[in-house]
Structures are given as structure tokens and as C-alpha cells.
Amino acid sequence: MKEFELKYGCNPNQKPAKIYMHDGSELPIEILSGRPGYINFLDAFNSWQLVKELKEATGLPCAASFKHVSPSGAALGLPMDEKLKKACFVDDIEGLDDSPLACAYARARGTDRMSSFGDWIALSEVCDVTTAKIVKREVSDGIIAPGYEPEALEILKTKRNGSYNIVQMDPAYVPDPQEHKQVYGITFEQGRNNFKIDRELLSEIVTKNKDLPESAMLDLIVSLITLKYTQSNSVCYAYGGQTVGVGAGQQSRIHCTRLAGTKADTFFLRQHEKVLNLPFKPELGRADRNNVTDGYINKNEEDVCADGIWQKYFTEQPAPLTDAEKRAYLDTISGVSLGSDAFFPFSDNIERAKLSGVSYIAQPGGSIRDDLVIEACDKYGMVMCFTHMRLFHH
Length: 394
Prior knowledge:
β13 (336-340), α11 (348-355) and β14 form a beta-alpha-beta unit. Helix content is 33%, strand content 21%. The strands form four sheets. The chain has a six-stranded mixed β-sheet. It has a five-stranded mixed β-sheet with strand order 12-11-13-14-15. It is built from twelve helices and 15 strands. The protein has helices at 38-58, 82-87, 100-111, 129-137, 150-157, 214-228, 253-269, 273-276, 286-298, 323-330, 348-355, 370-379; strands spanning 3-6, 17-20, 29-33, 62-67, 70-76, 119-123, 140-145, 165-169, 178-183, 186-191, 234-239, 242-248, 336-340, 358-363, 383-386. α1 (38-58) runs antiparallel to α6 (214-228). It has three domains: 3-174, AICAR transformylase, duplication domain (Cytidine Deaminase, domain 2, 3-Layer(aba) Sandwich); 179-269 and 330-386, Cytidine Deaminase, domain 2, CATH 3.40.140; 273-320, no CATH class. With 394 residues, the chain is of the alpha/beta class. The model has no long low-confidence stretch (mean pLDDT 96).
């Protein structure tokens, strides 16, 4: 297949639309089901790059959950404890402990379930049955992987009455080293960002504390590779082999750090005993349970514990999760890693990161206030690496 005609571009009025290889060669994909659209393919190819590079850097199965050309979550295929399984809505999945790939996707989806609603999924490995069973019951637009077990493919083909978008990627494909795109009829050209992110990138530690354990190195690699495919400005918190908060597309660095930190706080608070034991009505669907959980934690659009409201969601009125209880729980969290796609211009980013349990930081460095940022890290005993590499993505 040398080109694929799309229904439309980013919006229904943007026609005609298609994808094709600039040199006239065959596309490195096979569409096994559905008819992916313009934004679907943007998510597919960006997410594929992320999991491919993360697998190469760590040697572990990886998964990503993408929305609007940025990851809402990315993760390694590491085991999950029972609290995390329940918080990620996968405690009832049989065989989860035997499938690192399924654990990777459960973690990626569980990072920020609200943002992942209607996601595009990327897998670094051939999709197995356990992973397919998780995907089948989630609201998702499509999936890209290097292959699919026959039974897994049949499971996925049942989604959306057979119209679910399933794409198989050629894992041997190597893109042209030069990239092109047009804006307002003007062509831009640049070299692909082939910069390799690995443990060597974390060798320059600029803080007094230089104790960077292997687990933190993995988390920082997860964070930095995620940032490489996140719309800038961007900041990413990671913990336990997965992202726990991604802040994308903000004009201010501190707003990135706040946004990602708030998402990380919500991720951790989903494992609070009060949250795990919310008395949901049995007929309440997964998406509604997820939204109500977020409302219970963050007190957003409605007070789900209030009279006249709780009756819609719960079998009995739950006790609120107080601000004091949330702060006390978050104060027990430490060892979180944080990556930034460009330098921190002010130490306020470190102060905000501390509130979400950050102990390890990787950022390019190069600010005229680097000394103040390092001083703030030293105040809290944090470890900070300078990578000297900006990771902007637009």
C-alpha cells in the first residue's frame, strides 16, 4: 500500500486527505481493521516511536496511551501490586501477572484515566490475549503494535461492532533522516530527533546528593522518552516504571509542573483506602466510576458526597476525603522522578515538585538561575542530573 485515503484531515472540512510515503515507497503499516483518521495516524506514529525507543532503552515491554498527539500515560511491563491493580481498574483481569505487556498497558491507561478516555494505544510487543481483553473493554480509538496473536486479534475485531482501528507496524522500518512538514503553504525541513536517551544521559549529577538508584534511572528514562513525544512545554512525573503525571503544551514551565503534579497527586490518591473502598452502585459503568472517583478526590464539578448527589453513584453516603487527609497521604510519597523537556528557569518548579514526592530530577540545565535551582534541590536532598539536551516537540 503506497497511500491511504483518509475521510478528512484534522477537521471534517479539511479535504482531501491521505497519508503516503514521500519517496513513493510502500507504507510500513498494515490496517487490519477499521479506517483510521488523520489524528489517529498522528497518535499512532508518535506513540509507536515512544514505545519503540523505550523498549530499546530498557529492554522491557512497553505501552503508551495517547490523546491529541501527546501521551496521557506510558509504562514499562513491571508487576502490579493489588492496590495499583484496583486503582487502575484491572484487579479482575485473569492472567495479568503473567503478561508484562498487559501490565504495561494497564499502567499506561491508569496514569490518567480521564485523559486516556478514547485513547490511541501503542504496544512494543505482539499483542497477547490478556492485553486484548483489557483493551476490549476500554473506550479507545485504535491500537498500533508490531503484531497480534490470532486470538487477540479476533478479540480486538469485536470492538465497535468490527470497526475498531487496528494497525500493524513494520518493526524494521527506519524513517528518512530528514523530516518535512508544511505550515501555511511553507515547507519546513529538519533532521529527525534521533537523540538517544539512556543511562549515560544521567551521568552528570549537579546536586550534593549523588545517590541515583537503578529504579530511579529507569523512571527518569521513562520520563524523558515520554517528553520526547509530548507537545511542549512539557514536564513528566514517573514512579515505579510508569508515568504518573504528564503536563503537555503549556506556555509556562511552572504551569507544566503544576499540571503534571496535580495529575500525579490524583494518581497516588486513587490508591488511598477511602478511594479504593468507595461504595459504588453495582450498575454504575466504568467510565462513570472513573469520573466520580476523580470528582471525589478533586471536588471538581459537583460534590459527589453531598445529599441529593451521592445517591446517584453510591449505595451509601461516603465520608469525604478531606484536604488534611490528602496532604497527609501525599506526604508519605517519595522517590518520584521528574523530567523536563527544557531547563527550569526558577526554583518554584522544585518547590512544586517536592509537594508530589519528587526525589530525582533530570533536566537540560543552562538557565542563568541554575545555581538557585540546584540550591532548592539540595535543600530537600534531591538528586538532579543535567542532560544538556532539550527535548522540544511541536
